[in-house]
Amino acid sequence: MQYRQVRVIAGRFRAALRGVAVDKGGHIYAAGDSEIKVFDAEGALARNWPTAKPALSVAVAPDGSVYAGEPGQIEIFDTAGKLIDGWRDEKLLGFVTAIGFTNDSVLAGDVGGRAVRRFDRHGKLLNTIGKDNPVNGLLICNGVVSFAVDAQGVIHAANPGKHRVEQYASDGRLLGHIGRFDGVDPAGFTGCCNPTNVAVGDCLYTTEKAGPRVKAYDFSGKLLTIVAEDAFDANCKNMSIAVDSSGRLYVADTVKLAIFVFEEVAA
Amino acid sequence: MSEDLTRRALLGNVARGTVLLTLAGGAGFLIRKANGQVVWQVDAARCLNSRLGEVNVEACSLCTSACVVALSAVRAVNEYSKCGRCNVCPAYFNITSAVDEHGLPSEKLCPRDAITRKAIGKVDPEDPANNFYEYAIDEDKCDGCGKCVMKCKEPLGLGSITLRIRYDKCVNCNRCAIATACPQSALLQLPVEQAIRPPEVRRLGL
Asked: Smallest CA–CA separation between B185 and chain A, in Å?
C-alpha cells in the first residue's frame, strides 16, 4: 500500500487553515480565515463565505448542508453558503474542532469539555462521549478534539495523551482502542501526544505532529503504511484530515497553509 | 462537591501554590535588588532552546558552561499553568529510548535526574495513560543545560519549561559571561522594574 501526492491547494489562505472536509461530489471544504472556502476537485476556488467567528472545523452533512465549528457555536449553511441555523452554547460548544454525523445525530468535538457532544438534528444535547474515565475526558494537550464516524456509526476519537484512537458507540460506551506509544517504531505514536487528528474510510487515517506525518491503520490497529511525512512543515501540528469515497486523502498543513491531496498508488 | 470538582480544585491549588511561591520568591529577591539596579534575564523568545521554529536541533547548553557561578545561576522552570501533565513528557523521558513493560520510554532525558514526576488527582494504578502527572524540577540538581526546554517546546510539547536566572544565585556581573557567549543575544540586562513584568507585556511596550 503506497500513496502519492497528487495536488497541493496553496495560496488561498491568509492566516489560518484549521479544518478540511470533502463532500460526496468531491468538493473540498476548508475552515480558516473566518471563512468557509469551497474548492472543486481540481483545487480551484468555487465559492467562499464568512463565518461569524473564526472557523475551527467544517463538515458536510448527508443532506449537503455545511456545518462550521467555531468558538462557542456551530453555524449551519446551505450549499451556497446561506446561513440556515446556528447553535450557540458556551458550555457545550467551547471550541468546536470537529463535526460528524450518525444516522440520527450531529456530533461536535468540544475542546472545553475534552469530549464529543452528541446532539439531535435540532441541536438538543443527547449525550456526551469520552468523559467517563478517571481523567474526565480526552487528553488533548494540543487543544483539538478530533474524531470520525465509520460506516457502522462507530466513533473513532483521537486520544493523543494516551497515544490511542478510541472507539465509542453513539451512546458513549467505550468499545475499544488501538495505538500505543513508541518514539522510534512508526507503528506507534510518538511525542507527548499523538495522533492529533483522525479520518475514517476503508481504513483509519491519523495525522501526527513532531514530526508531522500521515499514517493508515486497519481497524485492528495494524499499521498499513505511512502515507506522507516529508511534505509538511516541521512545525506543523493539528493537521485536519478528510477522506473521500475513492480513498483520496486531504490534509491541512497549518503552517504552510496548504491542503495536500494524496491518493493510493495502484498495486 | 463532586469528585471531578475535587480533583480540579486539587490541581488548581497545586498549580496556584507553586506559581505563587515562585513569583513570591523571585519578586522578593528583585525587590531587595531594587533601587534602580539592573538584573539579567533570559528572553525565552530569543533563547534557542525555547523559541518557536527551531526543531530538530541540539539543545544549547551555554548557560551551563559559560556562567561564572558553580552549577550556573540559570535553572529550568516548569510553569504549571501551561504544562499538559502528560503521561509521556518529552522533557522527562528520552522518548527515543526503548519502550518498557508499562509502555513508557525506559530512559529519562535529564542527565542530572533533576526532574521528578508523580501521578496527581484520581490515580489509576493499572493504566499509566489514565493519569495526569506533575513534573517538578529540583533546582539543587538542575544546571540549566536546556535539554528539557528544547524537548518541551512546541510542536513536540507545550512550551511550559523555560530557562530563567535565579536571582539568589546570580552575582549580577556587569558583563555577564552567558550574555557574552550567547549567539542569540538572549540575555537582556533590564532595570528591576522592567524585569518583574511579564516579557510578553514588556514587548508590547505596556
From this structure: 23
- Which cell numbers in the block locate residue B189? 540586562
Task: Look at residue A42 and tell me whether its pLDDT is greater than 90.
Answer: yes
Which class for A154: exposed (0-12), middle (13-18), buried (19 or more C-beta within 10 A)? Answer: middle
Q: Rounded to an integer, what distance in angstroms lies between the CA atom of residue B76 and that of residue B71? A: 12
| Alpha carbon of A264: minimum distance to chain B alpha carbons (Å) | 28
pTM given for the model: 0.89
Note down the domain range covering B158. Answer: 3-203
- Number of Cβ atoms within 10 Å of the Cβ of A85: 14
| pLDDT given at position B67 | 97
> How much is the pLDDT for A218?
97
Q: Measure CB to CB from residue B95 to each of A135, A183, A209 and give the nearest one.
A: A183
CA distance B109 to chain A (A): 13
Give the C-alpha separation, A264 to A1, whole Å. Answer: 7
Q: Are B98 and B106 spatial neighbours (Cβ–Cβ below 8 Å)?
A: yes
Options 3.30.70.1140, 3.40.190.10, 2.120.10.30, 2.30.42.10; CATH of A3-264: 2.120.10.30
Spans of all domains in chain A: 3-264
- Total domains in the fold of chain B: 1
String of b and e for A114-138 (b: at least 16 CB within 10 Å)?
Answer: bbbbbbeeebeebebbbbebebbbb
With vertex at residue B147, the alpha carbon angle to CA B143 and CA B152, rounded to the nearest 5 degrees, is: 120
Please give the angle made by the CA atoms of A203, A224 and A9, to the nearest 5 degrees: 70
Write the secondary structure of B75-86 as one string of H (helix), E (strand) and C (coil).
Answer: EEEECCCCCCCC
Q: Chain B: which residues have CB within 8 Å of chain A?
A: 4, 7, 52-53, 55-56, 84, 86-90, 95-97, 99, 103-105, 121-124, 129-132, 154-158
